[in-house]
Structure formats: structure tokens, C-alpha cells
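User: Show me a protein chain along with its predicted structure.
Assistant: Here is one chain, sequence first, then C-alpha cells.
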Amino acid sequence: MSTTSSFEKIMQNLADHGGNAVDIPPSWAQGRALYGGLVAAIAAEQMAMKLTTPRPIRSLLGNFVAPAPEGVLDVRSETLREGRAVVQSRADVLAGDQVCFAASAAFGEDRPALSVPFDVDFDAPPRNSVPAMQSGLRPLPGFLDNFDIHWTGGGVPMSNSKDRKTAMWVRHKSNMDAFPVAKIVGIADMPPPVIMCHFDKPVRASSMSWSMEFVVPPGEVETDWFYLDFTLEAAANGYSQQSGMIFTEDGTLVALSRQCMVYFE
């Protein structure tokens, strides 16, 4: 059993195995599955490692097929097409013969093109004015100790607040500069399902599918703190849809997130 626990050490463990396997300690579990942001980051970082010519990641699509357990996970990938500018890849994260996470990604070089700036104002409270995370989740999953989190209000699970939005400042406690893709992916899954704040008692909820689009190439992002602003768009019949925006500390939009989630009353 691996004794490494930080996000950085897990990514280094993946690199040491040539991107083909990684050993995850039990401290990263939440319920019967590992933290989804970690599992997705493993797939994304592995596909980036396997590129013959490095290119920035532009999009990541993934399905959480089965709960990913602690211990050794295998990662298998293939290049679907390599064009002059864009590479399309796919990867599976497996526990034994069971696929736990199935992903695809597009990597693309910059192109000379018209730029249209993002037109939503960055309206976040100063990070230092927000207390550290206070959550209705008790006990808190142990893997959260690997992050600094300042919850700015809204969307607290089991609060019965009926919020449609949640937001927070988040950073890795370990140095993730060597793994820029995993740095952002690992943080982007941090907000809990917003639907959970519509209940006054514990409910089970988890991601079924997840897509990310990278507005800024991760290798160009220098900030450690990120501001996550997520919105519950709809929920019915045990499925919810939420979207999110990930900003740097200076208000630059770096990524967009969209998730289809399941919840069990």
C-alpha cells in the first residue's frame, strides 16, 4: 500500500510508472469511491504525458463508470488521431478489469485567430476576507486536508438553503507546478453537488459525467489560488445538471466545467 498522500506525490507516482499505473492511499476516499477530481486528473495527466509532441489540453470529457477504489489503478490510453494542430486521445482508469473512469481529451496548438474576451464580471470576495471552509458535511472526507478551501457562501450540503449557486477559493497544499493539467482538474471537482443543499438530511450524490474546457492552456496558468463559481441549472428524477467557472486570483477565466450528477433521496 502506498504511503504517499499529497496530490503532487500521486502524480509523481503516476509519472514514475510511465503513466501506466498509480497507487492511491485510502486517505483519498470519499465513501466507497476516490475523489473524482483525482481520478479525472490521473486520466488527463496520463494522456498529456503520452503525447509525442506536447500540446496544451483544450477539452476533457469523462464518465464515472464505477467507483474507483484505493490501491493500484491502471491507466490505458490511445491516440485516436494526430493532426497538424490537434491530437484526440482517450484513456481508461481501471481497477483490475473494471473500467472506473473513461475519458477523452483534445490537445491543440495555438492558432492565429480573432479573440473575443469573456464578458462576465469577476465578482469574488477577497480571499483573505473569507473564513476557512465550514460545511454541513460531518465528518469531512480526509482528502480535503490536501487543500486550502475558503467557502464564500451558498450551496452548503444538508443546509436546506435551496441555493442555486456555490462558490469557493481553493488551492493545493502541495506544489503542483510540474503537473499543470492535474493542478486545475484536481481543483475543478471540489464543489459538492449543489443539489445537496436542497435537503436537510444526508443524501447520496455523485458525478456521472463531467466535461471541462480550458480557456487558458494550463501550462500558462501561474496562480495557486483558484476561484470556483458553480450553478445548479436543473434537477429532476434523480439527475442534476450544474456548470461552473474556474478563475485565477486576478479574475482570469481559465476553465469551464459541466457535470451531470445523480442523487438518491
